[in-house]
Design goal:
Number of helices: 17
Structural class: alpha+beta
Strand order of the largest sheet: 1-2-8-5-3
CATH superfamily: Cytochrome P450
Strand content: 5-15%
Distance between the termini: 73 Å
Largest sheet: 5 strands, mixed
CATH topology: Cytochrome p450
């Protein structure tokens, strides 16, 4: 019986590849493409990339069918595993089946609300320390700043304050391997085997080897320590399986640390970069944010207990995540034939969700192009369909660190915004570009303006 497919565009595989390699001569905007087909073809659409059948789900009901109702029939796509495994190994990001379930169960307690609350002070202290380099009237590349800041916070919370001298260079190594992973994922259509001695491959091989040595050193030293610390590594070392009583091997710990390191700082840094740009473009939103911070904090540094009193701060972050989700799309690969939206989808196809286009669908978000934090006011979870807002994914594989990321973003924003205003330096268009994360098309240079009378007593 001949398979029937949903309506969809005719897309030439070579056009996508050439657009990736020569974007100026042959521009191809995947974000615009995803939004266009969602509007034109409805709740589920289909197109082919060479022999690969691709389906895009554009409605919360269909997305729920994949993420929840048939979650056990979908694995991470092979192309994602191929791109990520040199760095992440068999960590949560790339594993599936029984291994993924075991690791998720072991790691989950370490990232629950009562555990991550202890990191609030470290997040604020790291932010305060970082701001020592800020000067009124100075110009900063805010994307670079947010990446450095969140990387420093990740080092502090993962390993504590006793990072040995041999591990001081871990930050640049993480940045290097993430950049190489991004290049590999974006060029997946024309993969270059890792044994080919290109400059990128040599650079990545060196960085991974050095990162591996540092992570294994930290694991060995923490295992040998007499007392456990309060950092994430100590909690992961102490985690044991309820049935077998076994913990993680050194290799599995290494894979999970690399995964947490990469996913844990890059996405938050990207979200904050877009937040600062949006605030600079919407002074009325910024004014309301600052009023809340001044009223609640009165110039002092924020604490974990303050977050419940700063609802508008959270609304700003959530709305920035709606317009510019760090993960602009995700995909799954069925491991057997499945049915979604009345269409049978064959094993090995690619089923994707464009989070970017979903978040800009007028059916679920009124005036979707407008930056309006109030849409995430009280009761937003009842007003917005459950699977229409997916900055952290959904279902069993929802981002395990979403609570950590939201706490970190709010504390950084609260610490910085009551002290400084950031104004975009160049008056040039800023557009999103889909890489591994959703980045601005150019570095955002922003001028630092110290707020009148803004000073922390602790500074």
């Amino acid at each position: 019986m001949k398979r029937t497919y949903p309506d969809g565009p005719s897309l030439k595989f070579w056009r996508v590849l050439v657009g990736r390699m020569l974007p100026e001569q042959y521009p191809f905007d995947p974000l615009a493409f995803q939004c266009e087909i969602a509007k034109k073809y409805g709740d589920i659409t289909h197109f082919s990339l060479g022999p690969l059948h691709v389906y895009q789900l554009n409605h919360p009901t269909l997305i729920r069918q994949m993420l929840v109702e048939q979650a056990d029939k979908f694995y991470k796509p092979r192309v994602v595993k191929w791109a990520m495994r040199p760095v992440a190994g068999e960590g949560l990001l790339t594993s599936d089946g029984a291994l993924w379930k075991r690791q998720r169960k072991l790691i989950q307690p370490s990232l629950q609300h009562d555990r991550i609350a202890v990191y609030a002070r470290a997040m604020v202290e790291q932010t305060q320390s970082f701001l020592e380099s800020y000067r009124d009237g100075g110009v900063r590349c805010i994307g670079t700043d947010m990446s450095e800041l969140t990387l420093g916070i990740m080092v502090k919370t993962l390993f504590g304050s006793d990072l040995p001298e041999e591990a001081r260079g871990i930050g640049p190594l993480v940045t290097a391997v993430l950049e190489a992973t991004g290049e590999r994922l974006n060029n997946a259509g024309l993969p270059i085997p890792p044994w080919v001695p290109t400059e990128r491959n040599r650079r990545e091989t060196r960085a991974i080897a050095e990162l591996e040595a540092i992570l294994q050193l930290l694991i060995r030293r923490r295992r040998a320590a007499r007392e456990a610390g309060g950092d994430l590594l100590s909690m992961l070392l102490a985690a044991t399986d309820e049935e077998s009583g076994a913990g993680m091997s050194d290799q599995q710990l290494r894979d999970e640390l690399a995964t947490i390191f990469g996913a844990g700082h890059d996405t938050t840094a990207t979200a904050l970069t877009w937040t600062w740009w949006l605030l600079s473009e919407h002074p009325e939103v910024e004014a309301r944010l600052v009023e809340e911070l001044q009223r609640v904090l009165a110039g002092r540094l924020p604490e974990m207990s303050d977050l419940a009193k700063l609802p508008y701060t959270e609304m700003v972050i959530r709305e920035a995540l709606r317009l510019y989700p760090p993960g602009p799309q995700f995909a799954r690969e069925p491991i057997e034939d499945v049915t979604i939206g009345g269409f049978q989808i064959a094993k090995g196809a690619l089923v994707m969700v464009s989070v970017y286009s979903l978040h800009r669908d007028a059916r679920f978000f009124a005036d979707p192009e407008r930056f309006d934090p109030i849409r995430f006011g009280p009761g937003w979870e009842e007003r917005i369909p459950r699977y229409a807002y997916l900055p952290f994914g959904g279902g069993p594989r929802v981002c395990i660190g979403n609570g950590f990321a939201m706490m970190e973003a709010r504390l950084i924003l609260a610490t910085m915004a009551q002290r400084y205003r950031l104004a975009l330096e160049e008056n040039e268009p800023v557009t999103p570009v889909q890489l591994v994360t959703l980045r601005p098309n150019r570095p955002l240079r922003m001028r630092v303006e110290q707020r009148t009378g803004a000073a922390f007593a602790a500074c």
